[in-house]
Amino acid sequence: MVEKPEHGTNWESFIKMLLDRLDIPKKEDIIFLHDRLDKLEQLLYQKQPAAKSGRIRPAGRRESASSIVLDVIANHPKGTNFKTIKAATGFDDKKLRNIIFRLDKIKRIKRVKRGVYKKA
Length: 120
Prior knowledge:
By secondary structure, this protein is mainly α. 56% of the residues lie in helices and 9% in strands. A hairpin with a 2-residue loop joins strand 2 and strand 3 (116-119). Helix 3 (65-74) packs across helix 5 (93-105). It is rod-shaped. The mean pLDDT is 82.
């Protein structure tokens, strides 16, 4: 009498064959790509100087946008205008206006005159 093979083995081999023929990535392929992306991100963070949207601190944490704007304003003791802050930070108008509003509200900066700010 001829023995029948188990159902599970034929089904699994069919699925593997289908994945290979249709070039569908397997779990091992995705894990391999994920590991490579992690290594690439680590290399980028190690070699990247201060980014436009946030400088990297020694501990690897990014500075907040408010602290970046405050640093730019602090570098100009007599005060600086909106255009200079925008050029130094690279932030868009709305984001920069919101940051300046919050810094003024918590008394971290002073408005010298319209559009000119200095550290409080």
